Structures are given as structure tokens and as C-alpha cells.
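Tutorial, part two.
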Amino acid sequence: MMNKLNQDGLLQIDVNPFTRLVWNSTEAREKYEVMLNRALPLHDKAEYEMVRRGLRKCGTIHFSPHTFHSLIERFHKDNMVWLPIQWTRNYGGFSHRHIPTVVGDSNSSAYGVMARNLEDAEAFRRASSYMARGQTDHKELGDLLLFPDCCSTFFVEKWGDGYYDPVWHSAEETKNSKMVADRVIEVEGHIHTNQMLRYMGLRTTTHFPCSLDCEESIRIGDIWLDVMNSIDQTGTDYLIELLSMPIVWSCLHGVAIVETPIFTIITNSLPTKERWTVLFNVPGGDKPAEKMILLGADVDLPAIAKDTRKHLEAMRGVPHGN
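Running the prediction step on this input gives:
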């Protein structure tokens, strides 16, 4: 059974950032769209509050021309600081890395660090190889961002090997994971380690977990959740419900498809040569196969291949079966 995703399994292509959400039915949209829109802003609001309340030394934020005036005023009133790190090209959807550009590009924003004091902000900027001064110190960045050491180590290892969206690897490291077919893994995880809906902004933490049962990630996630509840309790309830849904994450040729019972997300991801699939559910929750018709499950691929061959042979005048 094929179950190890390695560098030989990657194509040398790069898919531009994009994210699309498709509602699975009109009824699902009518019921959940309001919930989704209320839950979406929570992560960014909580990240700011985590820093402002001293629960986290640093956070990251983009300043754009149309938000600069309001953000800088808010930072001053809250006695916080912000330092720029680099200009990055604007993009649609979700990007796994910054797209470099030049200062003054009208289609760009300034990516930077927010902190309660200049010392922490400068430490973050130095660790980010600001102005290309030295290598990025991911361990230092992780400490300033309240990332578990185990997850920082995991991220550095996977990112260095070219796995900038290591959903499969995180599932693979989970104790209860089970291979159910070639390149298909079934896993039970926590909402705080569920990063499969982050392409839309739905998540309770910022870091990528080393596994879907990482205890430190769950502990830190509880801190985030307390902050989210203080911001919008109803929105937090919605976020928990959405992150608790059964999920099928699959990736092929640089495109990830994330299926839930109510919507499907299509976005850019690892350029794998074959399809790799993660079947996710929370403890005690429904499994994907119990609530969903999986993409392609109702399609007879061998029959399609046979009919296609007959059609092509007929077009070429070749007798069937030759």
C-alpha cells in the first residue's frame, strides 16, 4: 500500500494562489452562509487580541493603503507597535508564501509584525531575515508566536523539504491514523489542529500542528478559543460547529479539494503527481463516509475508461477489442 509522500511524488510546478467556495446545495447555503460570514473574521480579531492582552508576544498583519489610517490609529490607542518586514504582492485566495514585489507597487501591501513593545517586534523582524540579513530563524519566530516547539520543528523540516502545505504529513503523524487505501488516510483529530479549512480563514490557531492530536496545540488552542469567546460567543459557536464537520481533504497536481457536508473548497496546494486524501473527523463525530457522497465515489472510472476507448476506436475506424 502506497502511503509515503516524498519528493519524488511532487511535480515541478507552482500553482498561483486562489480559493473558491462552492455550496453543496441551496439549502446548505441558506442555512450556513450567515454562520460562515460571522465565523470568518474571528481568527484575525483573536490574533490581534492575543498580542494586545499579552498572551502572545507577536503577531503578523498586512497594512494596505486602504487600511493603514485606521490600523495605525488603533495601534497607537492600544499602545502597540508595528514594524514592516516586506512588501508583498496582493493575491486572491490563500497563499503559502509571500509574493515579493517592490515598494510602491499599487497592487501590494506591507507585511509586518505587531507587538506590545519595540524589543519583541525587532526580535521578530531579525528572525524573519529582514532585508535579507541572514537565514530565517523559525525557532525564534515560533517562540514569539506561541507555537509549540514540536510543531515548529515539524514545520521547519517539512517546509525545508518542499512540503509547504503538509496536511498529509500532519495526519500521518497522528497516533490513531489508519491507512484505508493507497494514499488514503483516516484520522481523528481536534478542532484546534484542524487546518483544512484555513484556506477560507476558518481556524482557531495560527500554526500548523505536528499531528492532529498534538497536546500542546490543543492547550494553546483553548487559549485562543477563550479570546474568541470574549470577542463574539455566537460567532465562536459557529466556528466550532464548522471545524467539527467531517472533512475530506485531497490534493492532486497543485490543487486541493476540501469537501464538507455543506460546502466544498478548491484551492492551491502541493503539486502531487498522485491524489493524496485525508478523511477527518473529530472525536465522537460523524465520519466523512457517513455524511457525504465522496467526490468521485459515485463515478465508475473503469466503465468511463472503457467507453472512452470504444469512442476513440470508433473515431479512428478501429474494430472494438483490437
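The two ends are 32 Å apart (CA to CA). In part three we will examine how such features are distributed along the chain.
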